[in-house]
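User: quick one, fold this
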Amino acid sequence: MHNKSDKWWNMLFVLPTFIIFCLVVIVPFFIGTYYAFFQWDGIAVNPMTFVGVRNFVNVFKDGQFLSSAVKTTIFTVLGVVTINVFGMIIALLVTSKLKTKNWVRTFYFMPYLIGGLILGYIWKFIFSDGMAIIGQVTGLKSIFFNWLLSPTMALMAMVVVFTWQMAGYIMIIYITGINAIPTELIEASAVDGATGWQTFWRVKLPLMMPSITIALFMTLSNCFKIFDVNLSLTGGGPANSTELFAMNIYDEIFKSSNYGYGQAKAMIFFIIVAAFTLVQVSITRKREVTM
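Assistant:
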């Protein structure tokens, strides 16, 4: 039974984290919201001009931002599917009777430990020089060429890199869900003559919905917010064909010096990400099965 002193001690330990959260997240959020209603270049000596909601209205007339929205949506759909499919396959593999499952788990989780900027530069070499060398050696230049020079393939290259980075992390989430399934249910399905696919589809998958909810939330939000890989791998090129949401906002604020307008874009970006993730969580939580 907890007494009042335990409550105050708990609050004391939580307080530093709460203060840091407020200083790093809450305060900048409200300051950014305030700046979104002004025309300003971000330099303190220059005056700020109040423009009301004009910045928000102009966002929906910005062709480059709308183009970034389409590209981000395409990237997010492809990324969410590939990351979760590969994460699930690897999780099923390492929870089987595979003798090298610990090595496989470590191998696939390692890319997540590499920073996005470094990862982007590594794969930039692979997609440029590496692919060109393979194309010359094999003679398959129609497949193995510099993907980063093609507007379509450059976006696919980003999907490949982000999948390679995130699949190992999502694998861990799915492993937790698989290990939480009672072995009696798996054995009962085998006794009833269910095939491996039937056991997965009818038994494992429904009971893994809490893990799937978390995994989809993580991949959906991270795909929408991707910036570091976008910056180091393609830089938004070629010809802005891979400029996603976060990079468009970054360029607007720090390259074009439209601080207020960039903050308006950031606010709309926040609303879009929050809306998609909340809808996803509400849908998947309804499908969760209690054991």
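User: anything notable?
Assistant: The chain has a mean pLDDT of 88.
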